[in-house]
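Weekly puzzle thread! Below is a chain. First person to post its structure in token form gets bragging rights.
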Amino acid sequence: MSFNYGYLVEIMVSLLLLLTILYCVRLNRQLRLLKADEQTLRATIAELITATEIAERAIAGLKSTMRDGEQNLGERLERVERVAAALDEQLGAGEELLTRLTRIAGAGRPTAEPAAVPDAKTVAAAAQAFAERTRARLNGLAA
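Winning reply:
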């Protein structure tokens, strides 16, 4: 009977050893899969880092372009404001000159034809319309 117990113990140890070997094989496969996933994850992280660096460079370029555009636009606006101010001065001087010429022309004509001489309101309205057309043209050039 002792032979059977020894043989039975040997079989049990062999079975446990076989189960241990099978479990180790399974763990080995899972470790390989995890290592493969780790390599894939590392590659993905490297791609994300590269994409982030490219995006940061693109953002810096856009900021630089925006600053240049803003500066250029500011310079153009200042130039347009100077031109508009000069035109306003010239229009004022032109209106004043037109008023003087109208008075001079009215003084030289006989009083029988007062309808032919435009009044100051008509002259001012014509000058204002001319100024608005000129501003519209300048705004079209500035755009």
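Puzzle host: Confirmed. Bonus trivia for everyone else. The chain has two helices and no strands.
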